[in-house]
Amino acid sequence: MKLQYLGALLILVLAVGCSNTPASQTQSSSEEEPESSSAKALLQGYWVDDETDQVSFRAVGDTIFYPDSTSQPTYFKIVRDSLVLLDVGMRYPIVKQSEHAFWFSNQNGDLIKLSKSDDPLLAFAFVHDTPHVMTYTDVVKHDSVITYNGQRYHWYIAINPTRYKVHITSYNADGVEVDNVYYDNIIHISLFHDSQRLFASDFRKSLYGSKIPAKFLEQAVLSNMEYAGVDQQGVRFVATVCIPDGAACYKVQHVISFKGELSTTLLEF
Predict the structure, then answer these.
(1) 22 in a structural domain
(2) 189-215 pLDDT tens trace
(3) Which residues, including other chains, have CB under 8 Å from residue 221's CB and lie 6 or more apart?
(4) 144, 118: one domain
(5) Burial of 34: CB neighbours in 10 Å, binned 0-12, 13-18, 19+
(6) Alpha-carbon distance 186 to 159, whole Å?
(7) Could you list the residue range(s) of the whole structural domain that residue 56 is in?
(8) pLDDT tens digits for 74-97?
(9) Contact 249, 241 (CB under 8 A)
(10) Rounded to whole angstroms, how far apart are CA atoms 167 and 81?
(11) What is the tally of structural domains in the chain?
């Protein structure tokens, strides 16, 4: 009887202990969903949009590549009938998947229908698996000689490409979130009065932190600098700070006085 009593008591203690398992542990175990290796195998290859006949992506191993030269490749999984893009943290419900068909819903709820293609010419759309960045690849230089009040001035602009990355999240034609990468520029301005240098400085986009919202500046590049004229205040230059591939830009005016002093004014958005 004592042994039976101790056994029953032990079972009761174990039951209470199990019922007190933290909710976070229970939830985390349910989130560890197994990946479907067979579904991933079906997705390998080139996929073309049924509506536009344009290549949508190429799946190779555990990576999806896009034909857009600025879109970063992303690691993916297929978990419980969903396409999970790991690098951008997005999950798309799979509506239909077979050897030659892949249908899924994008973030707007639109049904995207893709078909697998064996066309060898599609390889040319993925010549560079590592995307190129739409920016300057060489130093771009502009200069000119101007005359004001009988005085001769020489200005010089050099747009220098850098390796400073700017990450921008956007959506491709299928409504799939992609991570695009661009490189920022450093722009140099020099101003001379005859042979005397009045001003020389490098301009970075961080210079405009007090005039341009931080969220915009984070996704923008210092894309251009142009000569804008000369008057009694000095020589004018206009900088353009833009989000790549977007219509949004800020224009900022720099005036270099004939004493070499710099003033900066926000012109427009």
Answers:
(1) no
(2) 999 999 899 999 999 999 999 999 998
(3) 135, 166, 182, 183, 184, 185, 205, 241, 242, 243, 244
(4) no
(5) exposed
(6) 6
(7) 35-126
(8) 889 999 899 999 877 889 999 999
(9) yes
(10) 29
(11) 2
